[in-house]
From TrEMBL:
PROSITE patterns: CYTOCHROME_P450
Coiled-coil annotated residue ranges, if any: none
Function field: May be involved in the metabolism of insect hormones and in the breakdown of synthetic insecticides.
Location(s) in or outside the cell: Endoplasmic reticulum membrane; Microsome membrane
Originating species: Parnassius mnemosyne
Protein's UniProt name: Cytochrome P450
Domain of life: Eukaryota
């Protein structure tokens, strides 16, 4: 008898726990189909995926900022409240299995590294992203801006054109120079191929995310997309392996520090060639991120990173850096071209700082470009390049109104937080002025999340702002830009990207 009572009590407690837990669980998003859940939202290409991200975010906001979403058997949470997002981002650092789909490409660089590795590596990498190192890149940013203007000259006065192709190429060259020291300018074919192949690999990762039967490795491994992905990744790895190997050779050389002329003797001809181009371009002995990583020492006095670590980090910096800044620049120029009064105000600020001169941007100029900074932030608020990121909930977490239970994936909607009512009734409008007055900004400092939030936020934030301010200030001193952002159609291919209608026209300023 006592056994039967015990079984009833245990069963009763189990049911009670389930009931109490369900009372704290958030509601499910609408259109939750039996067994399939919300998988139908993932079906279709990048255009449909972007629409789905917007729908999920708006529905979640309506449901009280926390909601459940099911992808077949996989149960997820969605968040749109900025403060709740910060709690999750600062408590759970593991990103969940979706990021594993990028591991064949990015290995265990910062973006995809498991938490144990990420913690030590992020601390070390933070030291290489200091202001002094970034200031050293300003020369590259100025040279690359001038190069872009030279290339755009052929489009002057000719009506609308696709500025994305120029900007993608230029951004890749810039990030390559600062991450590896390699000057891709002289490698036009390699540059064009790198951009195309990177795009293909991004799309293949998205293809896997969209088709849940590919979540199982054995099915994915049999697919033709995976076979093509392997070939593409082999090409991308081939490029970075070549560079990193040569840099490593140079760093392990006993005469590394004995001056540029001596260094020549111990490095291969091809490296010498790259060095030559690099020094010619910058005119200074600048160190790339890759060089700084090789120089870092661990607690035992030896190199902190293995060859593979450096390759993974350099690959990650290139991928995380070039597409994000390029896409933001494409969208920001389009917005500036759509709002004449905004363009006039930026130009006025540029005149205050630079007069009529087309001189280089100096580090002292950057903090003075406050209106331009507001424009860039407003562009990132309306069009966050990474509109949704994920975290694995690895402990039960109490939020404002709900508890999230361990084991589920949490989708943090940056898009949703940026269009949240905390931004006011004009949340959908492009209004850079809101950034100039603390009264017109949301109370919570976590409401702007374009670079994510917490300790696992974007390591390249300061780099990105510096590069964007430099290039736009060169561009607008030379050109008047027109465009119509309302005609632009966007898609989501791992990152937010323009699909069509994003063209601009440029006229030289008198
Ligand atoms: C407008 C430009 C950029 C935007 C909007 C942006 C946005 C973001 C976001 C939202 C994350 C968090 C991703 C996640 O949690 O899954 C992130 C992470 C990261 N970003 Fe950026 N990023 C930009 C530029 C850059 C640049 C220029 C670099 C490198 C030079 C860079 C390197 C990284 C890296 C390495 C991470 C992973 C950090 C970690 O996990 O510790 N980003 N970025």
């Amino acid at each position: 008898m006592i056994y039967i009572v015990c079984i009833f009590v245990i069963f009763g407690l189990y049911l009670l726990k389930g009931y109490l837990r369900s009372r704290h669980e958030p509601p499910s998003l609408p259109s939750d189909l039996p067994i399939l859940g919300h998988v139908h939202l993932l079906i279709g290409g990048g255009l449909r995926l972007w629409e789905s991200i917007k729908t999920i975010s708006h529905e979640c906001c309506k449901a009280g900022d926390v909601a459940k979403l099911s992808l077949g058997p996989i149960k997820c949470y969605v968040l749109t409240d900025p403060d709740d997002i910060k709690i999750v981002a600062n408590s759970c650092f593991e990103k969940g299995f979706l990021y594993d789909f990028a591991k064949p490409w990015l290995g265990e660089g910062l973006l995809t590294a498991p938490v144990t590795k990420w913690k030590t590596h992020r601390k070390l990498l933070n030291t290489t992203f200091n202001q002094q190192v970034l200031d050293g890149f300003l020369d590259v940013f100025n040279r690359q801006s001038m190069l872009l203007l030279e290339q755009l000259a052929m489009e002057e006065g000719k009506g609308s054109f696709d500025h994305e192709k120029y900007i993608m190429r230029n951004s890749l060259e810039t990030i390559y120079l600062t991450a590896t020291g390699l000057d891709l300018r002289a490698e036009k074919t390699l540059n064009a191929k790198y951009v195309t192949v990177t795009d293909k690999v991004l799309r293949s990762v998205i293809h896997r995310i969209q088709n849940i039967w590919y979540y199982k490795d054995f099915i994915w491994n049999m697919s033709s997309t995976k076979k093509q992905q392997d070939k593409d990744i082999e090409f991308l790895h081939g490029v970075s392996n070549m560079i990193v190997k040569e840099r490593k050779q140079y760093h392990s050389s006993p005469i590394k520090n004995s001056g540029w002329l001596n260094t020549k003797k111990c490095i291969s001809f091809s490296l010498l060639f790259h060095f030559f181009k690099y020094f010619r371009l910058t005119g200074k002995n600048l160190k790339s991120f890759g060089d700084l990583l090789f120089d870092l020492e661990g607690s035992n006095g030896k190199s902190a990173f293995s060859n593979q670590d450096v390759i993974d980090h350099v690959n990650t910096l290139i991928v995380a850096g070039y597409d994000t800044i390029a896409t933001n620049l494409v969208i920001t120029l389009l917005l500036i071209g759509s709002y004449k009064e905004v363009q006039d105000k930026i130009y006025k600020e540029l005149e205050d700082v630079f007069g009529q001169s087309d001189r280089d941007v100096e580090k002292e100029d950057l903090p003075r470009l406050t209106y331009l900074e507001a424009v860039i932030k407003e562009s990132l608020r309306l069009y966050p390049i990474a509109p949704m990121i994920t975290r694995l909930i690895d402990k039960d977490l109490k939020l404002k109104n709900y508890t999230l239970y361990s084991g589920k994936i949490c989708l943090l909607s940056i898009y949703g937080a940026h269009r949240h009512p905390v931004w006011g009734e004009d949340a959908n409008d492009f209004k850079p002025e809101r950034w100039l007055n603390p009264e017109t900004l949301p109370k919570s400092p976590n409401s702007f999340l374009a670079f994510s939030v917490g300790r696992r936020n974007c390591i390249g934030k300061a780099y990105a702002m510096m590069w964007l301010k430099t290039i736009i200030s060169h561009f607008l001193r030379k050109y008047l830009v027109t465009g119509d952002h309302k005609k632009t159609v966007l898609k989501f291919d791992f990152l937010l990207k323009p699909y069509s209608g994003h063209y601009i026209a440029i006229e030289r300023r008198k």
